[in-house]
């Protein structure tokens, strides 16, 4: 998979992708992430890429020209499955969307800034708009990093224990069951006996029952519209 990120603030993203799981995934050749400074495509002598909004009002707008040039240049080299614009009014990112995007080959992700981008970018150049939540951040870099993390950790070989992403919250429509590690007793606080039983079927049943119960308590909306979910053993 290849991800090209277009941004006005590339340095914000460099450190994110230069570390941890995301860096290892790139070193293993499982994903290529290219971060591009939109100023590279500015025809302005001061390398500006934003301007005032027509009609007035506070806030600068990212101009269409450099964005159009950037996308055209990338598309000359290879085809892209999606050109994604990070936007607070886009489709809300959730696990099924991350799963879907993790199956794609090449993605462009555009980060907005200031007031956002010229609307014609959204009308003509973007194929999908994604929000990471109903709140407004000052730029699309953190949202792009969140989206990339959610996608990249799903790529086969990225996580050491390959089953681990599948047992995370939301993958089966349930939140994750509680996890414990050594010591089995700390400060008088004990872990559930079943986890020490060595009986894997009982442990699996307990985890499932905990996941269902937690989902009921914390995220009941995940259970709505899923009548096929197994409640029987809860
Ligand atoms: N004026 C815009 C907000 C612009 S915020 C509005 O009211 O909708 C500046 C940029 O930050 C946006 O262009 C977008 O790329 C990014 N951004 C802010 N909040 C976001 C969110 N919740 N999800 C995704 N991107 C977001």
Assess the beta-strand content as a share of residues. Answer: 15-25%
**Structural class based on helices, strands and sheet pairing:** alpha/beta
Largest sheet: 5 strands, parallel
CATH class of the largest domain: Alpha Beta
The tally of domains stands at 2
Tally the beta strands.
Answer: 9
**Kindly, what is the distance between the CA atoms of the first and last residues, rounded to a whole number of angstroms?**
40 Å
The arrangement of helices and strands along the chain is: EHHEEEHEHEHEHEEHH
Shape: elongated
Number of separate helices: 8
Low-confidence stretches: none
> Ions, cofactors, ligands: which are bound?
S-adenosyl-L-homocysteine
Brief overview:
By secondary structure, the chain is an alpha/beta fold.
Describe the model.
- This protein is an alpha/beta fold and 234 residues long.
- It folds into two domains: 2-152, SPOUT methyltransferase, trefoil knot domain (Alpha/beta knot, 3-Layer(aba) Sandwich); 169-223, Orthogonal Bundle (Trp Operon Repressor, Chain A), CATH 1.10.1270.20.
- The chain has eight helices and nine strands.
- The strands form three sheets. Strands 2-1-6-5-7 form a five-stranded parallel β-sheet, with helices on both faces. Strands 3-4 form a two-stranded antiparallel sheet.
- Strand 3 (50-52) and strand 4 form a beta hairpin.
- Helix 4 (95-102) packs across helix 6 (141-152).
- The longest helix is centred in the C-terminal third of the chain and has 19 residues, at 200-218.
- The chain starts with a strand and ends in an 11-residue tail after the last helix.
- The site of S-adenosyl-L-homocysteine has 18 residues, from strand 5.
